[in-house]
Amino acid sequence: MNVTVNQEPVEIGAQEPTIRELLAERGVPDEGVVVAIGGDVVPRGEWDELTVKEGDEVEIVHAVAGGSGEDILEIAGETFSSRLFLGTGKYPDAQTMNAALEASGTALVTVAIRYMDLSGDEDGSILHQLDLSRYRLLPNTAGATTAEQAIRMARLAREATGTNWLKLEVIGDEATLWPDTAATVEATKVLVEEGFVVLPYTSPDLVSAIRLEEAGASTVMPLASPIGSGQGMVDWTGIGRIVERISVPVVVDAGIGVPSDAAMAMELGADAVLVNTAVARAEDPVRMARAMRLGTEAGRLAYLAGRMPVSAAARPSSPTRGVPAASTS
């Protein structure tokens, strides 16, 4: 049987092998690999069922060390080359927003769902201001304070944007905008059952993250510090515990203020960061967007490189033997 694999014609022995069988025949390890057929990414859970047919165009992509442009993030079967996600709120105007999105290199942007202003004074939908061929939309339920309200907003968002991807937010305390994790877990269960790809905003609490993963969340998104505060990585140890235990991607969300915060999140092993206010409210949003991109990339590279061991004592960089004797004159 003849197929095309990574743009090269290939003859394979088995008749209509499954994806996993094709990988095994080609000697390709299935860890860290993404497979697409006809341009459509195939979720890993379908590899033992979906078969490759005569004439299919198969793409096999793997993640390699950062810096080569191929360090791929996968969420719910979809791949992202950028690990920096950006919000679309708080910019002075649409032109600045789009320039910042361009400078950031992002491929995923969040949008909010609100009632229309029927007076005619509104500028219109944010969707008209975005190049939807470049960005995956991630509508959010910002402002929801109960699971029921968030679920209703999610359904409206799906109809308004045409995507089943959702950043789920359920706020438990309006003063700090701290998430109601119990309500978030409750809403996640319902929305996953309804076919949503749920990316929930949560606290840096390990048990809450575990419960969200169990509920079917496609990521967990612990806050670095309160939304819009710019305080940075306040509870980095809590986020570190989540990174170590959770198998779905971890996206650090809220409170990042400067690129070093983004770098620190990535150095901990987070899979991505979501930033809005730090870019939109910077004196120069476009330059800050580029800085966030570099910070995110630097942190990811450092994580992949593996940091040096931490020592309680100083260790000289130069040899200690053969040092010329001090002058006695």
Layout of helices and strands, plus pairs?
Blueprint: E1 2-5, E2 8-11, H1 19-25, E3 33-37, E4 40-41, E5 57-62, E6 73-75, E7 78-80, E8 84-87, H2 94-104, E9 108-112, E10 136-140, H3 147-161, E11 165-168, E12 171-173, E13 178-179, H4 181-193, E14 197-202, H5 206-214, E15 221-222, H6 236-245, E16 251-253, H7 259-267, E17 272-275, H8 277-280, H9 285-305
Outline of this structure?
With 329 residues, this protein is of the alpha/beta class. The protein is built from 9 helices and 17 strands. α3 crosses α4 and α7 runs parallel beside α9.
Entry keywords:
alpha/beta, TIM Barrel, 5-stranded parallel β-sheet, single chain, 329 residues, 30% helix
Descriptive report:
With 329 residues, this protein is an alpha/beta fold. It folds into two domains: 2-62, Ubiquitin-like (UB roll); 73-305, TIM Barrel (Alpha-Beta Barrel). The protein is built from nine helices and 17 strands. The chain has helices at residues 19-25, 94-104, 147-161, 181-193, 206-214, 236-245, 259-267, 277-280, 285-305, and strands spanning 2-5, 8-11, 33-37, 40-41, 57-62, 73-75, 78-80, 84-87, 108-112, 136-140, 165-168, 171-173, 178-179, 197-202, 221-222, 251-253, 272-275. Strands 2-1-5-3-4 form a five-stranded mixed beta sheet, with no helix packed on it. Strands 10-9-8-17-16 form a five-stranded parallel beta sheet. β8 (84-87), α2 and β9 form a beta-alpha-beta unit.
